[in-house]
Amino acid sequence: MTEYVAEGSARVDVFLAERAGITRSAVKRLADEGNVCVDGVPVKAGHVVKAGSVVSVEIPAPAPVAAQPEDLPLDIVYEDEDIAVVNKPRGMTVHAGAGVSHGTLVNALLFRLHSLSGVGGALRPGIVHRIDKDTTGLLAVAKNDAAHLSLARQIEEKSAHREYVALLEGVLKQDEGRVETRIGRDPKDRLKMAVLPAGGRLAVTDYRVEERFSSHTLVRFVLQTGRTHQIRVHARYLGHPVVGDRTYGYKKQRFSLDGQLLHAQKLTLTHPKTGERMTFFAPLPADFQNVLAILRREEGHHADHE
Questions:
Q1: Are 178 and 277 contained in the same domain?
Q2: pLDDT of residue 306
Q3: How many angstroms separate the CA atoms of 276 and 262, rounded?
Q4: Residue in 223, 282, 213, 206 with CA at minimum distance from that of residue 243
Q5: Among residues 157, 188, 223, which one ends one of the domains?
Q6: Are 45 and 152 contained in the same domain?
Q7: What is the CATH number of the domain that holds 267?
Q8: What is the CATH number of the domain that holds 13?
Q9: Predicted model pTM
Q10: Do 285 and 180 have their domain in common?
Q11: Domain count of the fold of the chain
Q12: 49-64 as b/e, with b when 16 or more CB fall inside 10 Å?
C-alpha cells in the first residue's frame, strides 16, 4: 500500500496519474477493484480529493505469466509420447485470454500430461489449433516442439482433416456445397466475425446434408481453412445459423442450450513420428443427442443415427 497526501483538490485518477505515474485507466481498474482509498475509505476514480486527504493505492502483484495446472475433468481420446487427442466439453475455453485465466483446457492439460510443446508460448502450451468455448469435440495436442511443428504444418497444408457436425436452423435446400468467402472482424461489432466484401482472410468450408427435419437440418462441415468462428459465420451466411448460437444465430431459441450445437466429430492426421495416418471420432454430446432425439420423434425418423 502506497500513500500520498493531497495538496489541493483534484480527481483521484488525475491525482494518482500525476503523483504515482499510473495511467487514469489503470487507476479506474484499481478503484473498481477496491484498491484505491481516500482517508481509508474505498473510492471510485472520479472521486474528488481535498487538500490534506490521504490517498492510498494498492497495486496487486501481477498474475502469473504462465498457465497453471488445474485438476479439471478431461476426456483424453488418445495419448502417446508425442501427441494427445482430447474431446473438449462445452463451456471450456481452450487457453487463457481476455478475462479468462483459469478453468481452461490448457490448465487441465498441464495437470494431466507430463509434457507439452512450448512453441505456442507460456499461455498456450501444446495448443496447435482451437475450437470455440461453446463448441465441443476433438483437438490435437502436441507434447513436444517437433510434434507441434508437424501438426501445425499439416493444418496449414490441409493434410489434417477436420469434420464438424452442426444442427442448423431451417431447411438447407442444397444437399452439398462449398462456401468460399472472406472473413474478418465485423465492422459493426469488433467482438464478432463477419463475411466481408473485401479484406479479411479467405475462408473455405465444404458441407453435406446428413439429415433433414421440417424446421432444421443436420449438416456435416469440412474445414478447408481455419478462421475464427468460420463454420458459425458461414452457417449464418447460408441463412441457416447453428442452433443455440446466440452470437450469430437467433436470439429466441426453441431449445434450452448452453451453447451452439456444433461438434468437432472427426479428426484425421499423420502421426509426427511414425508417419501413421490416424483417425479419431468423438460421439455427439448429450445435449446434442437429446435435441436430435426430440426432432426424430416429432418427424417419425428412425433412431439409427450417431
A1: yes
A2: 46
A3: 28
A4: 213
A5: 157
A6: no
A7: 3.30.2350.10
A8: 3.10.290.10
A9: 0.76
A10: yes
A11: 3
A12: beeebebbbeeeeeee
Pairing of strands 277-281, 161-169: unpaired
**Of the residues 132, 134, 175, 189, which is catalytic?**
132
Cα separation, 80 vs 291, whole angstroms: 35
What does the pLDDT average to over 72-100? 90
Q: What is the Cα Rg of the chain in Å? A: 25
Residues 300 and 168 in one domain: yes
- Average pLDDT value for residue range 248-262: 93
Residue 152 CA to residue 160 CA, distance in Å, equals: 9
Give 181's strand partners: 203
Residue 300 has pLDDT above 60, yes or no: yes
d(CA 255, CA 55): 52
Q: Which residues contact 156 (CB under 8 A, 6 or more apart)?
A: none
Amino acid at 152: A
Q: Which three cell numbers stand for residue 58?
A: 494498492
267: exposed, middle or buried (Cβ count in 10 Å: 0-12, 13-18, 19+): buried
192 and 293 in one domain?
yes
State the residue range of the domain holding 73.
62-157
Distance from C-alpha of 20 to C-alpha of 56, rounded to nearest angstrom: 10
What tens digit of pLDDT does each residue of 126-165 get?
999 989 999 999 999 999 999 999 999 998 888 999 999 9
Average pLDDT over residues 98-127: 84
Q: What is the 3-state secondary structure (H, E, C) of 53-121?
A: CEEEECCCCCCCCCCCCCCCCCEEEEECCCEEEEEECCCCCCCCECCECCCCHHHHHHHHCCCCCCCCC
Concerning whether 132 is annotated as a catalytic residue, the answer is yes
